[in-house]
Structures are given as structure tokens and as C-alpha cells.
Amino acid sequence: MGLSMFMCKQLTQTLLDNFSSGMLKMDVFNPRRHREKVIIVMGATGTGKSRLSINLATHFPAEIINSDKMQAYEGLDIVTNKVTEEEQHGVPHHLLGILNPNADFPVTNFIDKASLAIESSLGRGRLPIIVGGSNSYIEALVDDDDYMFRSKYECCFLWVDASMSVLHSFVSKRVDQMLENGMVDELRKMFDPNADYSRGIRRAIGVPEFDQYLRNEPFLDREQRGMLLQEAVSQMKENTCRLACRQLGKIHRLRNMKGWNMHRFDATEVFQKQGREAEEAWDQLVAGPSVVIVSQFLYNFAAAAAATTTTTSLIPTNVAGIKVTRNVGPAIATATY
Question: Membrane spanning segments where (predicted)?
Fold first, then answer.
């Protein structure tokens, strides 16, 4: 018992020292890893994937690699929900807004670019965090035919989930917010009556849905324009909800059929609250437990934790700006399969 308590105190102090310094040294507990470590953040649209990835990247020395194929294109920042420069908090982002809007971006190109970004991040001593909603691209990267990715990298999968009914309500409100932020003007500037909606950024939800409105806008009176606008908005909301359902189905397939070991965080309560209460729920249910799980993944202290009477004794109470309360233990237990 004395040895276990000593191990616990030493481990906790080491974690706190690293957290308080604002940077985690990647090789504290396992200096001779055979595989480099990669974080992959998944979830349906609107669940908070980007938010979590930035939370993690501001607590660990990390860089973010975008895996949303529409966000890889330049332009339509509002339509594609790209994180703003302010929201990035100075964290380096790769594969974000780099492609010509008319270019094709097949999965093979994504694999090449993502692989280069991973290696360049690791070369700078940074933890690669892959985040985005294009699950088929993530699957192709991780489960490549020759098993090269898995042989080179050890993955920690974080899944931000939420009740579909709650999420559908949120994405509907998000579309309304996009309208207020100037989405129609953004679409109008890129509108081309001869455009091919099967190529490039014009495949993004919101672009084809507004075709009829933008095509006929100059010839309609105010009432007619309002009707067409409302129809376009309704179609965009409906197609966004369908996308969320498809994304969730793919995640379930990866977990249940392919055996991906995912840590699931239920953010439903976050969407049911507002203001400070929502922020606290996010910290308690998603961000805080994620920080602890990632630190466990990076430093391999699960075995040491098992030797103590309770895993929660290893949880820091303040992690570089995220208030991690002691009762994140249930969220961590639920997140770990």
C-alpha cells in the first residue's frame, strides 16, 4: 500500500508539473516508443470536434490536421464552418483552406497530404491531432491496404457524440446563425450559373441548395425571393441533418464492425444548457475527460493507475485553463470501452 501511494503521488506531481508548464514532454513515461502517437477526433457535424481538438492542442504541444474534405478548399468559410483565425488560438492547422475551389480532392490526395502533415508535425516534436467529419477519408488513411499507418502510428480515437434530436435542433440554429453571418453574400460571390455541383467546393452542403434562389433572385419580387430563400434554408437544414445521421452510422460501423477502440463523450447535456452552464458541462463531460485520456495515452500510466485504489486520484483539478473537477471520473469511465 505504501508503494502504491508513493507511485500515485509521484505520478500525479509529474502530471501537474507538466500541465502547469503549458507543455507536455512527449517522452516522460515512455522514451523508447516503437510507434509515434496520433490523436483522431471524430463525431457528427456540429458536435464540437474542432472545439475539442483546439482544447487539446492548447494543453499539449500539438498541431491540427483537418480531415473535412470541404474545409480543405479555399473559400466559403461560413458555408463550410471553417474555424476562424481567432478560434484557432494560434494552433497550427494543416489542410485547411489550401485547395483551389474547383479542384478535385480524391482520398488518395488526402492520404498523401495528411501523411506529410503528420510527419512534419512529429518532426517539430508536436502531437498530430486529426479532426474532421469525412470519416471515409479517415478510414482510408488509418486502415490502408498495406497496414502501413497502423505499423507506424498508435492511435487514440476520441468520439464526440450527442443525441440526434438535440443535435438536429442545434444544426438548424447553426444554419440560421450562418445566415446572420453573411452566408448568402458569400454564396452570391461564388455563384456561377454554369457551375458543376459535382466537383470541388460546390459539393458542400449549402451551395446546390441555394442554386435556384441565386439563379432567379434578380427576376423576383421581395415576397417571391423570401419564399425561395426559406426553401433553400430548409433544404440546407434537412441535408445537414441527413449528413449527421450518415456520419454517425459510419462511426458505429468503424467501432462495431471494424473494432476501432473509441473513447465516446456524450455532449448532449452541453447543447441543453446555455452560457456558463454550457461551458462548465463541456469541461466536465468532454474537454476535461479528454485531456486525462490523452495524457494516459501519451504517457502510458494506466498500469500505475491500476495499482492505486482509485483512478480519479490521478486526475489534475486544473489543466491549463480547463477546470477538471474530480467528478469527471464517471465521464472517463463511460468514454473508455
Answer: none
For residue 161, give every residue at least 6 positions away whose Cβ sits within 8 Å of its Cβ, in sequence order, or none. Answer: 43, 44, 47, 248, 264, 265, 266, 267, 268
Of residues 4 and 26, more confidently modeled: 26
Rounded Cα distance between 47 and 332, Å, is: 18
Q: Pick from 239, 230, 330: which is nearest to 289 by CA?
A: 330
Torsion over CA: 290, 292, 294, 296 (sign): negative
Residues of the chain with CATH 3.40.50.300: 2-164+258-335
DSSP type of residue 326 = G
CATH 1.10.472.10 corresponds to the domain 169-240: no
> What is the architecture of the domain spanning 2-164+258-335?
3-Layer(aba) Sandwich (3.40)
Residue 318 DSSP class? E
Give the Å distances, CA to CA, from 65 to 28, 126, 203.
24, 12, 21
Reported as a single tens digit per residue, the pLDDT across 137-148 is: 999 999 998 999
Determine the longest span between alpha carbons in the chain, in angstroms. 82
Mean predicted lDDT score pLDDT of the chain: 86
Contact 285, 268 (CB under 8 A): no
CB 285 within 8 A of CB 267: yes
Q: Which residue has the cell 481538438?
A: 53
> Cell triple for residue 295?
495524457
Nearby residues of 237 by Cβ (< 8 Å), 6 or more positions away? 171, 172, 175
Contact 195, 202 (CB under 8 A): yes
Task: For residue 154, give the nearest of 19, 300, 331 by alpha carbon.
Answer: 300
Query: Which residues share a beta bridge with 318?
Result: 323
Where does CATH 1.10.287.890 sit in the chain? 169-240
User: What's the pTM value of the predicted model, to 2 decimals?
Assistant: 0.83
Contact between 239 and 205 under an 8 Å Cβ cutoff? The reply is yes
Other CB atoms within a 10 A radius of the CB of residue 212 amount to 13
Q: Scanning the structure block, which residue is given the C-alpha cell 464540437?
A: 48
Start-to-end Cα distance in the chain: 28
